[in-house]
Design goal:
The chain is an alpha+beta fold. The protein contains 19 helices and 30 strands.
């Protein structure tokens, strides 16, 4: 807190506070105004480009004001620092006021969308409140923000609330600093705000308001599929306890096996469906303003049908995040599948007409409203583990909040990093902070590229930042690479290429606060594929890195990818390549039975002739091969990530594998000398090996955690060796 002592203002008649953090656009100035009035302080509060400024007339109550200030902050606010300096007033202010921002400063700032707060939820369910059952209730502490913004500054005319002028009652709340809806740009009520209706496949309205909710709930209970317009896109909903309904959704959406997220009506259902070591941590995440999907272990006796996440022991759960979802779940009173409302391979729909067109034949009815979604934002995804939480997809509820950079980045010039082509995000970095966009999807989709271009312009407006350089992935075939070169040429600014796996490790350093001058570290980059030195395809690398430099220490041996990209969807191809590369008489192994013929003969011929069979040192494809050998994945994977997920149900279990294959498959060998280990040696003396460790007894292999421990064990040996 502030370094305030009474003597700080002994030579002046006031005090000036500089407050930094998440203090703009979150109701912080009204909070300061109310707090100052409580302590009978005089002065003013205002925004500027760096945060909030509070100027106070001298008073003994300032000490109490500063003590309470961080304790009762608005739900979306966060104070990072408070500094104080003496201030001289020309004359004593008559009261405490909220002043307009200084010249040239944006008076209103944009923050992330936030789940319905407790106060709005109470009003939503109060029959005596004028917003009773109003599905668009919100206030300064909750509701849509980023997803409704068109341009800066963030005020109502620049959002999708522009078509809804405030009624006298809402306007009075909006103008009252003591009201929870003071300057809440999306505020509305049934008299002046958006409205809800139910539509059939032809686009005809069949019910409105409460009747629309009632009919949509009845459709869900009857096993139908409902397209629901949300905050950042459409969802497809169905009864998560009804196997036939979920199977129908999978068939219509062409999504045969990928896990589906489930929205719980309340904590009672949550307790029946999941099991976690720390329920409090789970509830804290689910009830937080971002309200993400959280991946947790499914309960063995869960009432959810098996079609939710076939073959997996994890389930993604969430609680209602907006008023419409609260009302819908209250009426249905059972868990609902809430999956993205998009056809296979396309981003989720945004407009009503797009949803009617693209989800025809998928949804049975559409629950629509007339508040436009301007910025697409998927549900964020977090995994809860014994060690804490791990962000898997940062989107709704987190974007566009800035993240602090580690020490040493205080005067960083503005840089725009454009990311990779798959699962694209971009990052805007300047001074001591970075802003990462929401998950955008594949840049191969024209709609996604258009969204990216709009967001690039919007982020520049939000933060007033003009990039001085562009950073791109080194892969020359990436659209993002070509886009960055063109943008740099257009603006006549530098364009820097970055190795894919160097970027991974540097992001890891920044995430963990490694100082800019902290020196080099040895990092492991294990993924699918990325562009390496000399155009090599990497994916299982040991690198010596800092924020600017990257040295390749070693990695997995390069093995062919039979069929190129197809190998990522058919694990048996990777098993074939590993066996062919390292085991001369592999055809006699029982693991070879899982490789279909005559495709194998054709592919081996292509590998020999180097036809569509690039070499890659990919850890992802290596584990594909092991999964295929253990027959824990299907020959054809229908969704990316299926192979890694397939290991989780086997975690800590034992299964049979040929000892000869286990001993001789040197696909998992490394380039550094060994010094013992928990597996069979699979390379001649002088090189180390890493293999899936096994319990005592021939042919027994332990899956999951020991596999990960083996990786860490052998890499630790590599680190010690390279340091010698």
């Amino acid at each position: 807190m502030a370094d305030f002592e009474p003597e700080n203002i002994a030579s002046s008649n006031g005090l000036r506070l500089r407050i930094k953090g998440k203090v703009q656009g979150v109701g912080f100035r009204p909070y300061v105004w109310l707090l100052a009035r409580r302590f009978n302080l005089c002065g003013e509060v205002s925004n500027d480009g760096a945060g909030v400024i509070v100027q106070l007339w001298q008073s003994s109550a300032i000490t109490d004001f500063l003590r309470v200030l961080p304790q009762e902050c608005p739900p979306l606010a966060r104070i990072d620092s408070v500094t104080s300096t003496p201030f001289n007033w020309p004359q004593q202010p008559a009261s405490f006021t909220i002043a307009s921002s200084g010249a040239g400063q944006v008076d209103t700032h944009i923050v992330a969308d936030a789940a319905t707060c407790d106060a709005c939820l109470a009003e939503l369910n109060s029959p005596h409140n004028r917003r009773y059952h109003y599905p668009f209730i919100n206030c300064t502490h909750c509701g849509p923000r980023f997803t409704i913004i068109r341009r800066m500054p963030y005020d109502r005319p620049n959002t999708s609330m522009q078509p809804f002028p405030l009624c006298p009652q809402c306007l009075a709340e909006y103008q009252d600093p003591a009201d929870r809806r003071f300057h809440a740009q999306p505020t509305a009520c049934p008299e002046c705000g958006p409205h809800l209706w139910l539509s059939d496949a032809a686009g005809q309205t069949t019910a409105s308001a409460d009747d629309a909710l009632k009919l949509a709930s009845q459709a869900l209970i009857a096993g139908q599929i409902v397209a629901v317009k949300g905050i950042g896109g459409f969802h497809l909903a169905c009864d998560a306890t009804n196997p036939a309904a979920v199977q129908r959704l999978r068939a219509r959406k062409h999504r045969p096996a990928k896990p589906l997220a489930v929205m719980m009506p309340d904590t009672h259902w949550l307790q029946q469906c999941v099991q976690v070591a720390e329920p409090t941590a789970l509830l804290k995440l689910l009830r937080s303003p971002p309200a993400p999907i959280v991946l947790v272990m499914a309960h063995p006796q869960s009432p959810l049908c098996g079609e939710i996440a076939p073959g997996l022991n994890e389930v993604g759960v969430m609680l209602p995040a907006n008023p419409l979802q609260h009302l819908l779940l209250q009426q249905v009173a059972r868990p609902l599948v809430m999956t993205s409302g998009n056809p296979a391979g396309k981003p989720p729909a945004l407009s009503n007409q797009q949803a009617l067109d693209e989800l025809a034949g998928v949804a049975d009815v559409w629950l629509l409203h007339n508040r436009e979604i301007v910025q697409r934002a998927d549900d964020s995804l977090v995994r809860l583990t014994e060690q804490g939480s791990e962000m898997l997809r940062r989107a709704r509820g987190y974007v566009p909040d800035a993240m602090p950079l580690p020490p040493g980045f205080t005067a960083q010039p503005a840089i725009l990093a454009l990311g990779a082509d798959s699962k694209n995000t971009f990052c805007l970095l300047w001074d001591d902070r970075a802003v990462v966009s929401q998950h955008l999807g594949s840049l191969g989709d024209e709609t996604t590229r258009q969204q990216q271009q709009r967001l690039l312009a919007l982020f520049g407006e939000i933060y007033g930042v003009v990039p001085q350089a562009i950073a791109i992935d080194a892969h020359p075939g990436y659209l993002s690479h070509q886009q960055g070169l063109a943008l740099a040429n257009e603006r006549t600014i530098p364009c820097v290429t970055t190795l894919h796996h160097h970027a991974h490790l540097v992001a890891c350093l920044a995430e963990h606060g490694w100082p800019r001058d902290g020196g080099k570290v040895i990092g492991l980059a294990l993924d699918g594929l990325g562009y390496g030195l000399g155009g090599q395809l990497w994916g299982g690398e040991c690198l010596l890195v800092d924020y600017q430099h990257c040295e390749h220490l070693g990695g997995l041996p390069a093995v062919a990818l039979p069929g190129g990209d197809v190998a990522a969807r058919q694990p048996w191809r990777n098993l074939l390549a590993q066996l062919q590369r390292f085991v001369p008489d592999w055809q006699t192994l029982p693991e070879a039975d899982s490789i279909p013929q005559p495709q194998a003969t054709i592919l081996l011929r292509a590998v020999e002739r180097q036809i569509n069979s690039p070499l890659a040192s990919s850890a992802g494809r290596l584990f594909d091969a092991v999964a295929a050998a253990l027959q824990i994945v299907q020959p054809q994977i229908s969704w990316e990530g299926r192979q890694p997920a397939s290991w989780k149900p086997w975690r800590g279990k034992a299964c049979l594998i040929s000892r000869r294959f286990h001993c001789r498959c040197s696909a998992i060998s490394w380039i550094w000398p060994p010094s013992g280990g928990n597996g069979w040696p699979i390379r001649p003396p002088g090189t180390a090996c890493l293999c899936v460790p096994f319990r005592p007894g021939p042919g027994i292999c332990r899956i999951g955690s020991p596999r990960d421990k083996a990786i860490r064990h052998q890499y630790r040996r590599a680190v010690r060796w390279s340091d010698a």
